[in-house]
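name: query_chain
kind: protein
chains: 1
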Amino acid sequence: MNYIKILFILFSFQLQSQNLVQNPSFENTKRCSEIIGAFGHNVESWTSPTFGTTDLFNTCAKGQVGIPNNYNGFQQSKDGNNFAGFYLHSDDNYREYVQVELSKKLVGGKKYKISFFVSLAENSDFAIKNIDFLLSENELNTSIFRELSDRQLKKNNIEKFKIYVIENDRHYDNKNTWTLISTEFTANGNEKYLTIGNFLKNSKTEKLLVSNKNRNNMSYYYIDLVNLHDADWTETKPIKPVVVSKNDDKKIAINKDYTFQNVVFDFNSSELSKGAKSEIKSVYNLLTQNQGTKIIISGHTDNVGGSKFNQALSEKRAKSVTDYFISLGLEEGSISYFGYGNEKPIATNDTEDGRNKNRRVEFKIVENN
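structure:
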């Protein structure tokens, strides 16, 4: 063990000490839940303030709330092993929210900055522009409501709250990667609870049609890495932990996607070449030298051919790589694979060079918590 080097930079402690949001990436949970709607009673420090059933997605689960595949689409976490998901637009003004108790009360007249990441789920029909936040002195527990709105809260004698609208000139329509939302605000004072969601009724929600094949009339978003801190605090960019080989001749960052350079296939084939096997062995050696890690394999294609064919081919090629890792001695519990077909291109499919880049197999090393 003395030669294993997994470098964890001091960023983690510094960030947590400045962030007033407890459990910002929803990592601390009571259990690994495999059912939808488990967010409110499973995630420490967080609640669902209406009768809406916000979801928790986790890498430890399979099926409906697994990562990356889930019942509303697929997405990797932005940070850690978990993220949340909620309906921000749906029939009958149905809404879901996330609410957290801050580590301390806000100071009146002081400027703060809030930020979080969102990604639109693939099964959504609409993208919206209204993802805002509410600050209150007391915890909101309005389980009789579909939605939280200024009028609704005042009508029910809920006081000492303010809804902050985040100025935005576009719809949050990115389904492939995470979108950062951030703004600065001045606190009224004594706010202790933060709630994030859509506080407008359907008739006032600005929405953009992004798909007419689902016909669910809804907007469902994933959310991760919520941060609230003093506006004058200068954030230090995180340096990802690094997996280092015994001889320090190769470094691979944790939670970062890498493309195999020699794992290429003949047309409609999933058979590995000698060069591919050699490259896989080198990554296998890194894994064996760094205990407490696991690897995720993902297969991708260009857009030539039907989507069902490309999906099946990408899965077959990712499984081929996975099977070879296992044949080398890697435990099955330390590796997983997914196929994405042509859903996640990294280059244009209009040129041969671009299509070559999109026909790839990627891997990512993560901590095996």
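note: Confidence is low (pLDDT under 50) at residues 1-16, 236-240.
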